[in-house]
Amino acid sequence: MASIGHVAVGMALGRYETGAAAPWRRRLAVMAFLSLMALLPDADVVAFALRIPYAATWGHRGASHSFVFAAAVALAVAALARWKGESATRWGLLTLGAVASHGILDTITDGGLGAALFWPFSNARVFAPVRPLPVAPIGAGMLSARGLYVSGVEFLVFLPAWLYALWPRKARAARSVQVP
């Protein structure tokens, strides 16, 4: 994927977490954090620079795209949330959703090797039964006509998530209680 969908998922989760009443800085920070969590599995592109083969366990779309990896990151965030006095369960679940969504979304692309969702139990790369999204070129290839096409398709597919995340909402006014 071109990352547009991954960011949209993180932004929508951030909007869900903060709601309409949160100050805009908090909403922005939470949306940015969850977007980064949704993008985290693609940090494995460093494997190309380290000459780790694409199909290797730690290659692109390998172990970092698994549910176990998502759970480990979620546990770390939950521990940090507890330490900060926040709800560990809520932050753990939000992070799990953001990180795990990455591998799932990568399985609906029409190229690559699939994602190792079930690592370490299986190194098999899997695809979803239906694969409607075109696979994005890696690196500078995103600046090509193909990259622009993929970005456009992804933007349209994830438009509902973008609208949910960014549509302005008014905070509910506090009801005033009149005392007789």
Task: Report on the architecture of this protein.
This protein is mainly alpha-helical and 180 residues long. It has one domain (4-166). Helices cover 51% and strands 0% of the residues. The chain contains seven helices and no strands. The protein has helices at residues 4-18, 24-39, 46-49, 67-83, 88-106, 145-157, 159-166. α1 (4-18) runs parallel beside α7 and α4 runs antiparallel to α5. It starts with a helix and ends in a 14-residue tail after the last helix. The mean pLDDT is 91.
Please give the domain count: 1
- Describe the biggest sheet? none
Number of helices, where a helix is a run of at least 4 consecutive DSSP H or I residues: 7
- The arrangement of helices and strands along the chain is HHHHHHH
Helix content class:
40-55%
Rounded Rg: 19 Å
Mean pLDDT over all positions: 91
The structure class reads mainly alpha
Strand content: under 5%
The count of β-strands is 0
Pfam family, one: YdjM
GO molecular function, one term: hydrolase activity
Transmembrane segments: 28-50, 62-81, 148-167
Protein name: Metal-dependent hydrolase
Describe how the helices and strands are arranged.
Elements lengths: L3 H15 L5 H16 L6 H4 L17 H17 L4 H19 L38 H13 L1 H8 L14
Helix pairs in contact: 1-2, 1-5, 1-7, 2-5, 4-5
Protein name: Metal-dependent hydrolase
Pfam families: YdjM
GO molecular function: hydrolase activity
Overview in brief:
This protein has 180 residues and is mainly α.
Short descriptors:
180 residues, mainly alpha, 7 helices, globular
